[in-house]
Structures are given as structure tokens and as C-alpha cells.
Amino acid sequence: MIVTQITHHDLDGYGASTVVGLFADVGRIVHVPRYSDVGPVVEAELERLKQARDSEMLVITDLGLEAVAVKFIRSMAALNRRRDEGVRHRLIVLDHHASSVDQMRQAGLAPVAPEGGGALAFDLQDPGTTVLIDETRCATRMAYEHRALYATREADPARAGDIEALVAAIDAVDLWKKDRPAFAGGHALDEMFWDNVSTLVPVGHPWHDRFVGELLLSVAALLREGLSPAEVERRVGALRARAADAFLSGGPDDDRTLTTRMRMARALARSPELFRPLSDGTLMSFGLDAGTFQRVSDLIMETGRARRVLNVQRVGTLSFRSNNETALEGARKFRGGGHKDAAGGKLPSGSAYSLADAAAQVDPVLNPPPPDPSASPFAALRNWKG
């Protein structure tokens, strides 16, 4: 069964995806940084699942169930009721926001608490839909404790202690339980996460989630050994290099004399997943940090893969790089400016939520179709035979 996970783009969201990935083969993970992106993401997922011929599993963690997400859950349950029993999907929602309970109630969905307390459950009149909300646990802990809902295998027994340490650290810091012994380590884990989540292997690259997950578990192992936050910080560089080695060693152009970022940039420059070709051959990426984009765009142009490269951020800013003095030409079409080979602009809509969304906004402006002669007001006169 194909498994997809939609999760929040923070430590708890990545902790939840790391845990789920230990117990099931997740084919695709969608990270959602902003609540404003939830609507487009779940709407696209609903349309995709409507067309899916076979059963799939969708796991949603730590998303915060605003009205648009509640509508999606109800639509998924209704979709399942219309599908034949053998091809119904599985939807598992694990959340811990108090506002999510309020939103579910406002939609007419009353929670049911199991005997003895625990997560609140909601009945969607569909056995394939499970919605659990527990304010006392972070999403990472919920993913671990409720793994029977989605698990297709057991995790590696050798990592059992690391998983427990990861869950405890994230639970303490995400719920801000400063009195817990695990809080200081969770704080150090959070700092490491934000320092590394997008700087080496960006979202969208097939290595991204495995790389971040390995870092999280490696730091959790240090916490389990009792290392202090300062000692953890000093070791993160070595952990990061070790994780990168697992992906990079033996690559066609790997050079171990370079820094980890330099080595990784070479692999990213070859990635077909990170860059979408626009109609004029410009290669466009989405959400790369400035340092990564600078390194990778230079390597792409150096190898001749493209002569102009563009990066779009979620907030709608555009960065153009070129080696044929066309960067500024492109930026000017987006109310921007800069140098001939390095310039920037802004999306007309103000933001984007995915690579596909950004491409749909950029390409028509960057490469407008030629005017249709038949649309000219003089065309009717030319064709008139009266």
C-alpha cells in the first residue's frame, strides 16, 4: 500500500515523520510550514486520492486542524464511503492542538474519550478514517504510541533506546515542560534541527527526510548517553558529515577534501527532483536557502545544464542567476532588479506553496505566449469579405 505523510515543518513534525518512517515505508512526505498552505496541500491530495485506483494510506501529523483541514477530513470520509470496500483509503490524523478540538466541535463532530482518559477520538462514520487529538502529547509521541494504526513492520531493535530518547526530548520541548530532565536535551535537539533542516539537503530532494531523520536519531543517541547540550553541539558537525557520507561516498564527482556543503552541492546540482525546467530552459527550484542556491546554481551553469537558474521562496521572492546576462531581464518581469547575472524580484501573487505552484505562476510571466493574431481588433476587418 502506498503511504503518504503530511506533517508540520518543525521539530515535532519531523520527529513524527521520522518515527512513522521507522515503522512503515513512506513513499512521500509533504512538509507544511504555514497554516495558509494547508488548504492547497490537502485539496491537491484529495483530488489525487479521488483518482487513485488502489487503496492508499495518508498519515497527517501535527498539522493543526483549521476549518479547511476539517473539511478535508469529512470529504475523505465521504469519498471512502463511495468507494468499493476493497479499495478504500486509510486516513490517520494525529494531532495535539487544543484549537483542533474546537474546530472539530464547530463542524458538528463531538469527541469521544476512551475509558481511562487519553486521546480524543472522532467518529467520521468511516472505519478507514481515524482522528485522534491529545493535548498532553506531542505529535512525535502520538506517532510512536499509536504506531499500530499504520505500522507494517517493527523498527530496528538496536535503535529502540534512541527512539525513546527522541520521543522524550521532543515531547518535553514541544510542550515546553521545562521541569522535565529531557527538556535541555530537547532544546539542543531543536537548535540542531533548525540549523540543518534546509541547509544541506533541501526539502524536495529524495535524501531530505532520511538525512534529517538520521541526524535526529543520532543526536537522540547522544542524549541517551547523557551528554550535555554543549557536548551535543560540539559533536553535531561530525554527525552531519557521517550522515552525508552515507549518501555521497562513491558518487561520480565526490571529493572528500571539500566541506560537507560543497560535496552536497555537487549532488544537488545533478538532481532532477529539485529543479523544474520552464518553457525557455530556465531551471527553477523552490525554497532553497540562499547559500545552497548560490553554490548549486553556479555548478549547474558550469556543467552546461542550464544558462539561467531561478529559485522561488515561499514568501514569493525570486532569485535569478545566469551566465549569459539574462538574470536581470528575467527579474524585471517580476518588478525586480539587480545585476546582469544576479537579480531578484517578487511573485505577483505574493507567495507560493510548492514547486508546482511556483512554476504555474512564474512560467506565464517569464515566457508569455505569443499574441494570437486572430484576437486583434483588425483581424475581423482583414477577414471581412463584404
Automatic annotation (TrEMBL):
Residues 375-386 have a biased composition (Low complexity). Residues 362-386 are annotated as: Disordered. SUPFAM superfamilies: DHH phosphoesterases. This is Dimethylmenaquinone methyltransferase. It comes from Methylobacterium crusticola.
